[in-house]
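TICKET: design request
STATUS: open
ATTACHED STRUCTURE:
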């Protein structure tokens, strides 16, 4: 295997714990722009490999940079270039994201990535969507050439750890998605969803999940609006719903008691004036908006309209917190798995990094042996071929025995413990 110089693993990001939604939505990257953003990140000075994870709850830059490991908080490893990337690519002042950013390097970056993929850092601990989102980011990064040796190995290990957490704990047994949390909130507000008309704006995975939970809770008519009408038709057919043309959204949205939005639109779809119009046509019957999109689809000022109730993804945090207590024991078990896997991954890195040192030591010793034989060549010229072969074998044996203690010590300090070797 070819060896490369060590890189500096740096993870910079914001999430639902560190930044409010009005900050997160300014850094959100729609799926259609993820490839372009990843290419742009890769072209930053000193970036050798990179991946961007952008979800409704987080935006994270995972990078392998030129140089060696640096202490957290230092500007080495091109942290300043990552900050400039955020500023330039998203056209936001540096002061906007900086107070909300977290930074992890090396071992702690590995731990954070393992926890994210295992859904231990999610708003709803145990939710299953995040692993798929990490895999999608990985696929995009590979397609644009931003992931190669080091991040490839790290991400493959990340997927294995996430799978191990899900198979060896019950963290996902009672887990709920953001969509189901939203539906749960709607049920608590209305008391019952029996016979309620629901409009899904956006026909992505979130909308599908929401539709399933709504039907389970007794919702009646389901309306679907999506920019790509064929996608809306597919969702509507699956749930025996009705398609609303996207360009007729504002004319027909008042038919719904509950509106769940999850589009990737860069601008808000519903403003305060829309809420006033809807309530007038509904004769002041209440209307409930659950906005699980980032950037948001619904202007929060619609809450000022009497009879309109708007909840965005940050508002779902309280409902999610109630579910956390039920899974705390399983989360502890999952954290133990992650910690063990971080140790094993670091030991593998140390073992890999020791290979060049071992080879260099062996090559140096062999060069010295050959040089000494060359200096003594005239004095050894009278020896028979068998005697010369014996001298060759003797010098090789002496070199190996002299190197043995050093090589053994080097391997011992970088090898995984015996009890870890058999588990994978």
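STATUS: resolved
RESOLUTION: sequence designed for all positions
ATTACHED SEQUENCE:
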């Amino acid at each position: 295997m070819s060896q490369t110089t060590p890189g500096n693993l740096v993870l910079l990001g914001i999430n639902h714990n560190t930044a409010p939604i009005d900050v997160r939505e300014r850094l959100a990257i729609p799926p259609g722009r993820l490839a372009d953003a990843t290419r742009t990140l890769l072209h930053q000075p000193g970036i050798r490999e990179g991946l961007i994870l952008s979800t409704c709850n987080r935006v994270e830059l995972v990078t392998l940079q030129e140089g060696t490991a640096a202490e957290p908080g230092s500007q080495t490893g091109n942290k300043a270039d990552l900050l400039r990337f955020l500023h330039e690519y998203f056209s936001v002042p540096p002061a906007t994201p900086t107070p909300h950013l977290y930074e992890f390097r090396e071992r702690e970056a590995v731990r954070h990535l393992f926890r994210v993929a295992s859904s231990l850092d999610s708003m709803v601990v145990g939710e299953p969507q995040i692993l798929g989102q990490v895999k999608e980011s990985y696929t995009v990064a590979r397609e644009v050439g931003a992931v190669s040796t080091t991040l490839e190995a790290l991400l493959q290990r990340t997927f294995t750890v996430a799978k191990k957490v899900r198979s060896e704990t019950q963290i996902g047994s009672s887990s709920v998605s953001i969509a189901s949390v939203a539906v749960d909130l709607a049920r608590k507000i209305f008391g019952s969803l029996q016979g309620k008309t629901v409009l899904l704006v956006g026909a992505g995975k979130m909308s599908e999940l929401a539709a399933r939970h709504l039907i389970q809770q007794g919702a009646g008519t389901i309306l679907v609006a999506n920019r790509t009408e064929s996608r809306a038709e597919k969702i509507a057919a699956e749930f025996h719903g009705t398609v609303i043309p996207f360009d007729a959204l504002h004319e027909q949205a008042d038919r719904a008691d509950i509106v769940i939005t999850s589009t990737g639109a860069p601008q808000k779809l519903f403003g305060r004036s829309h809420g006033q119009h809807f309530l007038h046509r509904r004769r002041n019957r209440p209307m409930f908006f659950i906005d699980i999109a980032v950037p948001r689809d619904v202007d929060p000022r619609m809450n000022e309209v009497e009879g309109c109730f708007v909840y965005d993804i940050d508002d779902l945090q309280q409902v999610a917190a109630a579910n956390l207590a039920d899974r705390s024991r399983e989360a502890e078990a999952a954290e133990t798995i992650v910690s063990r896997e971080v140790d094993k991954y670091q030991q593998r890195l140390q073992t890999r990094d020791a290979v060049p040192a071992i080879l260099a030591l062996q090559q140096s010793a062999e060069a010295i042996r050959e040089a000494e034989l060359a200096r003594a060549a005239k004095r050894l010229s009278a020896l028979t071929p068998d005697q010369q072969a014996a001298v060759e074998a003797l010098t090789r044996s002496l070199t190996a025995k002299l190197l043995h203690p050093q090589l053994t010590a080097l391997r011992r300090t970088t090898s995984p413990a015996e009890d870890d070797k058999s588990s994978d």
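CLOSING REMARK: The chain has 16 helices and ten strands. Residues 328-375 form the longest helix (48 residues).
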